[in-house]
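Hi P.,

Sorry for the delay on this. The queue was packed all week, but I finally got your sequence through. Input first:
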Amino acid sequence: MIAPRIMVVEDEEPLGVLLRYNLESEGYQVEVVTRGDEA
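Then the structure:
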């Protein structure tokens, strides 16, 4: 089964790391970017 994917746009890196960790532990594939133009 393919994991659902989610993109997080967060300019504070520590918060992005925390969000990635929590979402991946729930089974999501996570892409974190720090700027909207990277999305």
